[in-house]
Amino acid sequence: MVKTLLLSTFFVGGIASFNPVLAQKSKGPNSGAKTEVKFLEDIQLDIAPTTVSLVEPATKPPTTFAFSKAAAPALDIEKATELQLKFSILLDTEVEEIAINHLYQNIDEWWGTRYQYGGSTKNGIDCSAFMQVLYTCHFGTQLPRTAREQFETTTRINREELKEGDLVFFNTRGGVSHVGVYLQNNKFAHAATSGGVMISDLDEAYWAKRYLGAGRMAKVEETNSIALAGRP
Question: What b-and-e string marks burial along 76-108, b requiring 16 or more CB atoms within 10 Å of the CB?
Fold first, then answer.
C-alpha cells in the first residue's frame, strides 16, 4: 500500500514539474504565478480576407510573409534576401533564379493592393494600370492605359518564348480585357478582381481557358539582354 502511494506521488509530481500548465494548476488559483507560452521563432501566419468574384477565381496568397529558412529552397540560403526567399516560394523556383531588381521589389510593394477598375493608386488599382507602374519603374518606359492598347503596342510572341517582363493577355469579359506580367516558371503577376495584386499560374484552369497570347516590348528584350550579360 505504501509503495503504491509513493509511486502515485512520484508520477503526479513528475508530470506537474515537466508540464507548465499542470504545475500552474498545482499551485492553486491564488499563487500569483504566470505561465509563459513561447512560440517557435520565424513563424508568422497571416490570414487575408478574400473577396469572392464570379469573374475570376478567388484564390489569393497572404499579403505578408515571414519565412523560416527551413521552408525555403536549400540553395544559397545564407546569402538570400527575404525578397528572394519569398518569391522563390511563390514561383516555385530556386532562390538564385530570383534577381534583385525593381520588378520584384515593386510587385512586393504593391502586393495585396485591392482591385479597383480605373484605379491607379495603392488604395485600388486595375490590371493595366499595374502594368504601367511596373514598366515605368523597372523598364523606364510608359505603356498605354488599357489592356487592349497594351496588346496592340507589343510584338506577338509564342508562349514558349516568354521571358521575364513580357505581357500576357486574357479575355475575361470580351476581347482583350486583362493583362499581367510574366515572371518565370509559368507564373505571372497581375491585379485580379478577386484578389488584387497577386501571382497566378498560366496553367490554372481559369486562366488557361481565357489566355489570348503574349506580347513583348522592345525595352524588355534590351533589359533582359543586359541582365543576362551581367550574370556569371
Answer: eeeebeebbbbbbbbbebbbebbeeeebbebbb
Give me the catalytic one of 102, 137, 138, 190. 190
From the candidates 102, 137, 138, 178, which is the catalytic residue? 178
Span 204-229, pLDDT tens digits:
999 999 999 999 998 776 666 555 45
Contact by Cβ (8 Å): 33, 27 = yes
pLDDT tens track for 81-110? 999 999 999 999 999 899 888 899 999 999
Residues 6+ positions from 120 with CB-CB distance below 8 Å: 126, 129, 132, 133
Query: Which stretch of DSSP H or E encloses residue 120?
Result: strand 120-121
pLDDT of residue 79: 79
Is residue 102 part of the annotated active site? The answer reads no
